[in-house]
Specification:
Blueprint: H1 43-52, H2 61-74, H3 76-79, H4 88-91, H5 108-117, H6 131-149
Helix pairs in contact: 1-5, 2-6, 5-6
Length: 151
């Protein structure tokens, strides 16, 4: 039977020139599955995303359906199923001040930015939904907004 050699954690090593096993990532590398987001977390970044950021996914029934499902999980509790700001937490007065989507001048880019970083009392949802899911939610929110303003 094979007996493995036991090594001490963080002991000197000959594998690398600097003698350290745990190397830092190569400069400029990114994590697998991570998509860089170039807009800063401030009002200027929000306005820039609102004006310039466009959805890379196609507007489709499938993306809308997925967006609606995700919206029901993460957003409706505050924003309401219709996007009118009357979610269950609002109607029970557990939380106040969630605006209706018809009250705001929003774009898919601004919605994505808010999901990425949060805004005012709303926290970031970047840890809960990935980039594609954020765009799907944005598509559904824009559909809700159209229904609210009657277009």
């Amino acid at each position: 039977m094979y007996e493995p050699v036991g090594y001490e954690t963080y002991a000197d090593s000959d594998a690398f020139v600097n003698g350290i096993e745990a190397q830092l990532p190569v400069e400029g590398s990114i994590n697998r599955g991570w998509i860089p987001y170039d807009y800063p977390d401030n009002n200027e970044g929000y306005e820039a995303a609102k004006a310039d950021l466009k959805s890379p996914i196609e507007i489709s029934t499938e993306n809308g359906k997925q967006g609606k499902e995700l919206y029901g999980i993460y957003c409706a509790v505050c924003h309401g199923n219709k996007g009118n700001g009357q979610g269950i937490l609002m109607t029970r007065e557990k939380y106040l001040g969630v605006p209706s989507y018809s009250d705001r001048d929003i774009t898919p880019g601004s919605i994505y930015h808010v999901l990425m970083y949060g805004k005012n009392a709303m926290g970031s949802h970047a840890g809960q939904v990935n980039a594609t899911e954020r765009w799907q939610i944005a598509q559904h929110v824009m559909d809700l907004r159209q229904n609210l303003i009657g277009k």
